[in-house]
Structure formats: structure tokens, C-alpha cells
Automatic annotation (TrEMBL):
<keyword id="KW-0812">Transmembrane</keyword>
<feature type="transmembrane region" description="Helical">
    <location>
        <begin position="7"/>
        <end position="28"/>
    </location>
</feature>
<keyword id="KW-1133">Transmembrane helix</keyword>
<dbReference type="Pfam" id="PF03334">
    <property type="entry name" value="PhaG_MnhG_YufB"/>
</dbReference>
<protein>
    <submittedName>
        <fullName>Monovalent cation/H(+) antiporter subunit G</fullName>
    </submittedName>
</protein>
<keyword id="KW-0472">Membrane</keyword>
<feature type="transmembrane region" description="Helical">
    <location>
        <begin position="48"/>
        <end position="77"/>
    </location>
</feature>
<dbReference type="InterPro" id="IPR005133">
    <property type="entry name" value="PhaG_MnhG_YufB"/>
</dbReference>
Amino acid sequence: MALLLDIASWLLLLSGAVVAVIGGVGMLRLPDVYTRMHAASVTDTGGMILIIGGLLLQAPHWLIAVKLLLVGLFLLLTSPTAANALANAAIQDGIKPILGGGRRG
């Protein structure tokens, strides 16, 4: 049973790390601030859920699991809020998104 729990935990941790790396590559490769922000916020939230899920499976005590859940809840609330604030700031600065064909909207 413990081996199965370790395998599930490592799968969640590794998949969360892969999602985070994909988000980093998206931040480097995507063309404008809006698509970069989308890549960062979606993979940040998805990777965080997977990593915290893997850590929860390894939590030795219920108090640590509660703390991990509180950190996850905090990140679930703040990450999309920060992305929204950044998008609003970009819009107010007059930054136009790149539309299909490489032209600015």
C-alpha cells in the first residue's frame, strides 16, 4: 500500500513539474503579453494543484495536510486574481493583443 501511495505521489509531483516547465516555455515562446500571461496563470494553477496533491499524499501528519490545503486555497485565489490585474493594467496601458496573422488589434 505504501509503495502504491509513493508511486501516485511521485506521478503527481512529476506531472506538476512538467506542467510548470511547459508554462515557462510558453512564457518564452508566445508572442504578446496576454498569451504569455495566460500560459503562466493556467500552468501555474494546474501545476500547483498537482504538486500540492502529490505532497498531500506524503504528508506525515494531518496538520501538515491542512497547511498544504490552506496554501493551495490561497494560491487558487491569488493566482487568477493577479493575472486579471495584470491584464487590466496592460489594457489600461493601451497594449493591444496580437490577432491572427501577426497584426495588432
